[in-house]
Design goal:
- The chain has one domain.
- Helices cover 72% and strands 4% of the residues.
- By secondary structure, the chain is mainly alpha-helical.
- It has a two-stranded antiparallel sheet with strand order 1-2.
Protein backbone atom coordinates (compact mmCIF):
# COMPACT_ATOMS: atom_id res chain seq x y z
CA UNK A 1 0.00 0.00 0.00
CA UNK A 2 1.37 3.42 -0.99
CA UNK A 3 1.78 6.13 1.60
CA UNK A 4 -0.26 9.27 0.97
CA UNK A 5 1.68 12.19 -0.48
CA UNK A 6 0.38 14.55 2.19
CA UNK A 7 0.44 14.48 5.97
CA UNK A 8 -1.93 16.32 8.31
CA UNK A 9 -0.10 19.37 9.67
CA UNK A 10 -0.97 18.53 13.30
CA UNK A 11 0.59 15.06 12.92
CA UNK A 12 3.75 16.50 11.36
CA UNK A 13 4.05 19.11 14.12
CA UNK A 14 3.73 16.45 16.82
CA UNK A 15 6.39 14.27 15.20
CA UNK A 16 8.79 17.17 14.86
CA UNK A 17 8.12 18.39 18.38
CA UNK A 18 8.77 14.89 19.74
CA UNK A 19 12.03 14.63 17.81
CA UNK A 20 13.23 18.03 19.02
CA UNK A 21 12.31 17.40 22.65
CA UNK A 22 13.92 13.95 22.74
CA UNK A 23 17.10 15.10 20.98
CA UNK A 24 17.38 18.28 23.02
CA UNK A 25 16.57 16.40 26.22
CA UNK A 26 19.43 14.00 25.58
CA UNK A 27 21.86 16.88 25.00
CA UNK A 28 20.55 18.68 28.09
CA UNK A 29 20.91 15.55 30.23
CA UNK A 30 24.44 14.95 28.96
CA UNK A 31 25.60 18.49 29.77
CA UNK A 32 23.83 18.30 33.15
CA UNK A 33 25.66 15.08 34.08
CA UNK A 34 28.96 16.48 32.79
CA UNK A 35 28.41 19.63 34.86
CA UNK A 36 27.60 17.71 38.03
CA UNK A 37 30.66 15.51 37.54
CA UNK A 38 32.89 18.57 37.12
CA UNK A 39 33.91 18.02 33.50
CA UNK A 40 34.03 21.76 32.79
CA UNK A 41 35.44 22.82 36.16
CA UNK A 42 35.19 26.57 36.66
CA UNK A 43 33.85 26.97 33.10
CA UNK A 44 30.54 25.14 33.54
CA UNK A 45 28.61 28.32 32.71
CA UNK A 46 30.46 28.45 29.36
CA UNK A 47 29.23 24.96 28.47
CA UNK A 48 25.64 25.98 29.23
CA UNK A 49 26.15 29.21 27.27
CA UNK A 50 26.98 27.01 24.30
CA UNK A 51 24.13 24.51 24.72
CA UNK A 52 21.16 26.71 25.54
CA UNK A 53 21.26 28.91 22.39
CA UNK A 54 21.76 25.71 20.40
CA UNK A 55 18.37 24.25 21.36
CA UNK A 56 16.17 26.63 23.38
CA UNK A 57 15.12 29.08 20.63
CA UNK A 58 13.76 26.29 18.45
CA UNK A 59 12.06 24.56 21.39
CA UNK A 60 10.49 27.87 22.43
CA UNK A 61 9.14 28.39 18.92
CA UNK A 62 7.71 24.87 18.82
CA UNK A 63 6.06 25.18 22.23
CA UNK A 64 4.64 28.59 21.38
CA UNK A 65 3.04 27.37 18.17
CA UNK A 66 1.69 24.20 19.77
CA UNK A 67 0.12 26.23 22.58
CA UNK A 68 -1.43 28.65 20.08
CA UNK A 69 -2.76 25.71 18.04
CA UNK A 70 -4.28 24.19 21.18
CA UNK A 71 -6.01 27.46 22.07
CA UNK A 72 -7.61 27.90 18.65
CA UNK A 73 -11.08 26.48 18.35
CA UNK A 74 -12.47 25.17 15.09
CA UNK A 75 -9.23 25.49 13.14
CA UNK A 76 -9.45 23.65 9.86
CA UNK A 77 -7.05 20.78 9.38
CA UNK A 78 -4.25 21.62 6.98
CA UNK A 79 -1.86 19.25 5.28
CA UNK A 80 1.73 19.37 4.11
CA UNK A 81 3.62 17.23 1.64
CA UNK A 82 5.26 14.06 2.91
CA UNK A 83 8.46 15.24 1.19
CA UNK A 84 8.56 18.40 3.35
CA UNK A 85 7.96 16.34 6.47
CA UNK A 86 10.77 13.94 5.53
CA UNK A 87 13.15 16.77 4.61
CA UNK A 88 12.50 18.61 7.87
CA UNK A 89 12.80 15.44 9.95
CA UNK A 90 16.07 14.58 8.18
CA UNK A 91 17.58 18.03 8.70
CA UNK A 92 16.45 18.04 12.34
CA UNK A 93 17.94 14.59 12.93
CA UNK A 94 21.20 15.67 11.30
CA UNK A 95 21.39 18.81 13.45
CA UNK A 96 20.46 17.19 16.76
CA UNK A 97 22.77 14.21 16.09
CA UNK A 98 25.63 16.59 15.37
CA UNK A 99 24.99 18.44 18.64
CA UNK A 100 25.04 15.13 20.51
CA UNK A 101 28.14 13.89 18.66
CA UNK A 102 29.96 17.10 19.53
CA UNK A 103 29.29 16.39 23.20
CA UNK A 104 29.99 12.65 23.05
CA UNK A 105 33.25 12.95 21.12
CA UNK A 106 34.82 15.51 23.47
CA UNK A 107 37.04 12.93 25.22
CA UNK A 108 38.59 11.97 21.89
CA UNK A 109 39.13 15.48 20.52
CA UNK A 110 42.68 16.86 20.35
CA UNK A 111 41.50 20.15 21.91
CA UNK A 112 39.93 21.12 25.24
CA UNK A 113 36.20 20.41 25.62
CA UNK A 114 35.18 24.08 25.65
CA UNK A 115 37.40 24.86 22.69
CA UNK A 116 35.61 22.07 20.81
CA UNK A 117 32.22 23.52 21.73
CA UNK A 118 33.28 26.92 20.39
CA UNK A 119 34.73 25.36 17.26
CA UNK A 120 31.56 23.36 16.65
CA UNK A 121 29.79 26.51 15.52
CA UNK A 122 31.62 25.98 12.23
CA UNK A 123 29.56 22.87 11.48
CA UNK A 124 26.49 23.47 13.64
CA UNK A 125 25.56 26.91 12.32
CA UNK A 126 24.92 25.80 8.71
CA UNK A 127 22.92 22.76 9.89
CA UNK A 128 20.94 24.86 12.34
CA UNK A 129 20.13 27.36 9.58
CA UNK A 130 18.85 24.62 7.26
CA UNK A 131 16.84 22.85 9.95
CA UNK A 132 15.32 26.12 11.15
CA UNK A 133 14.38 27.16 7.63
CA UNK A 134 12.62 23.84 7.07
CA UNK A 135 10.88 24.05 10.46
CA UNK A 136 9.47 27.40 9.39
CA UNK A 137 7.04 25.56 7.10
CA UNK A 138 5.50 23.99 10.20
CA UNK A 139 5.94 26.40 13.05
CA UNK A 140 6.03 29.87 11.47
CA UNK A 141 3.95 29.69 8.29
CA UNK A 142 0.75 31.70 8.45
CA UNK A 143 -2.73 30.22 8.51
CA UNK A 144 -3.29 31.08 4.87
CA UNK A 145 -0.75 28.47 3.70
CA UNK A 146 -1.51 24.85 3.08
Amino acid sequence: MNKPLIVPMNVAKRRLATLWFVGSGLAFALVLVQSILGKYGEQTADAWSWLLPTIVPTLSLIVGVLVMDALKKGVKTRSISRFMVSLTMGLSIAYLSTVLLTLLLQPFAPIAPLALLKQSNLWLSPLQGLATAALGAFFVKGEGGG
